[in-house]
Protein 1
Amino acid sequence: MGELIQIVDSLENKISKLLHRLEVLDRANKTLENELKNVRSNQENARKTVSEWEEKYNSLKLANSMLGSNTNKTEAKLKINTLIRELDYCIAQLSE
């Protein structure tokens, strides 16, 4: 009978340790999930910032080429042609 009590006490002790370890791991998991959310948010903000700077850079390149810079004249002409085609398409859609 004493041996059975020792086995039960041993099992209770192991279960208690496992439950404690589970709580610790749950807390660590929640912390890591919060960190992951923060990192993803920061990454998305960085992507948006990069995208905004790329748009500004392209606008500046276009403005420079329109001001007489020879380096991007072909690109500017292509952009203007694209804009004209888009306008023509919109006008055609409106006239229908």
Protein 2
Amino acid sequence: MGERQDWARLRRERMAEPGAADAYDAARRAFELGAAVRQMREERGWTQTRLSEAAGMTQSALARFEAGGTVPTLALLERIAQALDTHLVVKFERGDSAA
């Protein structure tokens, strides 16, 4: 049980550091974008190679993106959307913020 408490304490300390919450949110968004693309690709029965070629990128870059390891540019997202015959929609929504 000590190990679990140590992990919880470490997480609290790290999240209290300046910028940690923003970095966590950015990583979460990158993961969610990658997961959405992976789901669409798999629904079509496509391999990473097929989608990466259609989107003009390498298979390894697509794999990193799908795993949430990179934050894509809007241009890349547009190429992926076009390759998947979908439309990219980017919008701003009001959020609950303490600031």
Protein 3
Amino acid sequence: MPNKPTGKGSGRRGERDLKTRVKTARKRKTSSTLWLQRQLNDPYVAKARAEGYRARSAYKLIELDEKYKLLKPGMRVVDLGAAPGGWCQVAVKAVKSDPENPTVIGIDYLEMDPVPGARLLQKDFTEDDAPEALIAALGGHKADIVLSDMAEPTTGHRPTDHLRIIALVEIAADFALDVLAPGGTFIAKVFQGGTEHEILGMLKRNFTSTFHAKPPASRSDSAETYLVARGFKGTRQD
């Protein structure tokens, strides 16, 4: 949820409020105003703008990669729920994907501007033929890492939101088991909730290491965290 506006001035002459204040427009809901104020005051938003990333979420992948060394030159990457393309931007840079022969594949039902070094598919990943389209885009190669930052629009009811995102994680994990090369990695966003034991069990059967991670760029007031599964065993264990 958006943070309550802060940064009220002390009243001393010459001091300025370091926080950006956003006035509530007549036709704007208070929740929208608070969201906008948080965006304007968010250092990751400013950093993304300065460094050319399309969204602050790019730093979630950057921080996960810095800590766990996930992305290496030459890797083949699949990014599920890729819009607006920030994770593809990070992956292209990290794996040194050639624009003439991209090794980063992104998919989303939303239209995205091109990302040099990535092949982008405009398609809903939950559609039955989406996995085949991604496999075709890989050109017969296995993927080294499957990323999923997918999330359904939130309802505000945390248990419901958690169940909806877990359903996406299940679909993404099922796909990852079909396309990952031995030793591959799967990363997916989840909400903290306690109903993911079945997914964890499945991942533990198929990967040598499975754990949760919350990068600093993931807001502290957000229930999101990331499931990281490393070392795909190469043979699917259902």
Protein 4
Amino acid sequence: MSATVSVTGVVKNYRTVRALRDVSFDLAPGRLSALVGHNGAGKTTLIKLMLGLIRPDQGSIRVLDEDPAAGEFSARRQLGYLPENVAFNAALTGRETLTFYARLKHVKPSKAWAFLDRVGLTDAADRRVGTYSKGMRQRLGLAQALLGRPRVLLLDEPTTGLDPALRQTFYEILNELRDDGATVLISSHALNELEDRAEHVLIMNRGLLAAQGTLSELRSISQLPIRVSVDFAPGAGVPAAWVNGASVATPRGRMLLVPDEARKMDVLRAAASDPGVINIEIAAPTLDELYAHFLNSQESAA
């Protein structure tokens, strides 16, 4: 599977600030990737480089097999972008705004208006954008990012200001684009939202790529323990086999910290054969925990 976005050895400095330090990764088609990191980690700089708004000091970036900072970046119309803070002409209506962006992408305005309905702005389409709330402006921004069914979609904190129902619709739209072969990159602090949605995670810290991979790969690399909670029937007691240095008491049984998938399966087999066990719950390291682990590991190594 060829990459739609390739970042190789990229360095970017702003005077004395080292924004990016030798960053390399690929983004594949048909995959939703998450770009996570604290403020100042280099996330927005990376997105600006992919859009061709700035150039790297060293290294190279290819988007749809073109240099985005080149004078003739013909693939630009195949990109969708939603900045963290959207800004539109307050005097235009929502429909006029989307018509303007549709013409820039050579999309018929009549085809663009369907996106107003998709993001819940049909009733406000002919109101001036200056009367919109922050959440409504964010919805309009999402609509313009989706114009032309982009092959690469770059989203910076896209769910800011969205209510839960629209947030669910937003991810449904992204899943459709991904299933259609688009490359989707979300930069976000909302790690809990991305937990079950991101197929590839890029963890940035102080301009460095601290870690990347699937959640499964990151869990394996981190060697953080898996939590297995076992509940016992009232009066059954806790067998001695469940009490060891890697377990702690819970109100209804024990929670065991197991180091890997093989040990987890051993615990599950033992639990399944124990007549006193009435419930088993498994909690793998969360994206929040993985993020904290890799940042701490990098800080310790620095």
